[in-house]
Amino acid sequence: MSDQRPIGDLIDARGVVATLGPDQLVSDVLVILKVHTDHDGTAIQIAYSEGMDWITRRGLIEVARDADAYDWGDDDD
Predict the structure, then answer these.
(1) How far apart are CA 41 and CA 35, in angstroms?
(2) Tally of domains in the chain
(3) Residue 76 domain flag
(4) pLDDT tens digits for range 13-54
(5) Structural domain includes residue 75
(6) Residue ranges of the alpha helices (H) in 1-77?
(7) Is 72 left (phi over 0), alpha (psi -120 to 50) or beta?
(8) pTM of the predicted model as reported, rounded to 2 decimal places
(9) What is the secondary structure of 14-38 as a DSSP string?
C-alpha cells in the first residue's frame, strides 16, 4: 500500500520553479503528477494543498488548461 508523504523534494528535484513578485502570496497549490510503476504502468495523480475544496481544485485545473493552450510567445515548447 502507498503512503502519503510531502512531495516538495520531488518538485524541487525536477526543477519546477514559479515566478512570483514580492507582492504575490500563494494561497493554494495543485500538482499533477505522471507516475510510473512496474505493475500498473503509467498513471496520473493529483495532489493539492490541505483544505482546498473541490470547486477551487476544478477551477485551478480548468484555468491551467486554458493558460497552457494560450500562446504566451515563449520559444520553449
Answers:
(1) 8
(2) 1
(3) no
(4) 999 999 999 999 999 999 999 999 888 899 999 999 999 999
(5) no
(6) 8-13, 54-69
(7) alpha
(8) 0.74
(9) TT------TT------EEEEEEEET
3-state helix, strand, coil in the chain (%, to 5): 30, 20, 50
Per-residue pLDDT band for 75 (boundaries 50, 70, 90) equals: low
Residues in the chain: 77
Specify the 3-state DSSP secondary structure of 64: helix
**55: in domain:** yes
Cα 53 to chain center, whole Å? 16
26: containing domain: 8-69
Asked if residues 28 and 49 have their Cβ atoms less than 8 Å apart, the reply is yes
Which of the 8 DSSP states describes residue 17? Answer: -
Domain assignment present for residue 36? The answer is yes
- Alpha-carbon distance of 20 to 58, in angstroms, equals 22
